[in-house]
Amino acid sequence: MTPARIGLAALGAAILFAAPAWAQKKYDVGATDSEIKIGNIMPYSGPASAYALIAKTQKAYFDKINAEGGINGRKITFISYDDGYSPPKTVEQARKLVESDEVLLIFQPLGTASNAAIQKYMNAKKTPQLFVATGATRFGDNPKTSPYTMGWQPNYQSEGRIYAKYILDTKPAGKIAVLFQNDDYGKDLLKGLKDGLGAKASMIVAEAGYEVSEPTVDSQIVKLQASGADILVNVATPKFAAQAIRKVGELGWKPLHIVNNVSNSVGSVMKPAGFENAKGVLSTAYLKDATDPAWKDDAGMKEWSAFMDKYFPDGDRTSSFTVYGYASAQTLVQVLKQAGDDLTRDNVMRQAANMKNVPLNVLIPGITMTTSPTDFFPIEQMQMMSFDGEKWNLFGSVLSGELGG
């Protein structure tokens, strides 16, 4: 055979063997032709065990997807472990999921401290720590150093910017007092508020931090009232937020009172604070409220209700956690569908960072999910709402708290 013919034969062989590779499916551990293994870490026990309802809802949603044929023909195996809301246990469970169970990714691990404990490990292992269940800004503000970590819900700085925008629009000559939890969560939201106020950050005339070990925040509220402020931004977890609302009422102080999103539960905050004290308090929302009669004929909430009937009949329909779990699971399914037959960890993150105005049927109208390689915050819009003494009522337009925007 002449050299020319040898070359042509070799080229033909190369093409013959390369052709199947061009159409080949790509998998990392945790994905096959028939299965996608998803890990999860949730506090099924301990002080935050109420959040376990989120993972139970997610499992029910994945059961629904599997019953309908899976994602591109692949069934989801959802492996969820308890960490008791203890960061050392979170580390242990993350290692088990990645190294023993060999999941494709860990989805919605819950808690700021818990996620902080595994962030370096997950990125070192190049395994997605995807759509974390915390609003801490650190889980999305640096895609370059943590390319495998992404948030989901509105981050605390975005929320703070939204409050700043509302205050500047409605009470630009006001004096602001801030109650905040003295940790990364409280400081994160306070930073967003100050950044949003910009040149008018001097409107903040008083700040009072509290430690979670303190029995009450009564003394902080007394101090803030003495500042002469006519706006109070209440950046506290449920127990302390309720105490603050009650104390403000007892003092006869009548500021424009904003309570942060994580503490606007009617049952665990407004009721213990006293409905009369809570009347007129403002907050934000991004998900539809299943208990709000305004949504009773809404198509998206009807779909959620049908899902609950069929796949999670024992689930608590009055809890925001069942709506949250449903929406977050929908988001992961969207990303996995986008990934197609390239179920590598890198492509999952590439797809998660390439959502363009994706709607979910339980997001408040006007709010969509958008990400990019430099924006790891899917939801950065919220709508203001007011408590009328019985329920929350949305008002105004959807506001954006986009970082850098």
UniProtKB/TrEMBL annotation:
Keywords, alphabetical: Signal
UniProt keyword Membrane present: no
Database matches in Pfam families: Peripla_BP_6
Leucine-binding protein domain location: 35-388
Keyword Signal included in the entry's annotation: yes
Residues of the signal peptide: 1-23
Listed PANTHER family: BLR6548 PROTEIN (PTHR47235:SF1)
Family: Belongs to the leucine-binding protein family.
Protein name: ABC transporter substrate-binding protein
Protein source organism: Alsobacter sp. KACC 23698
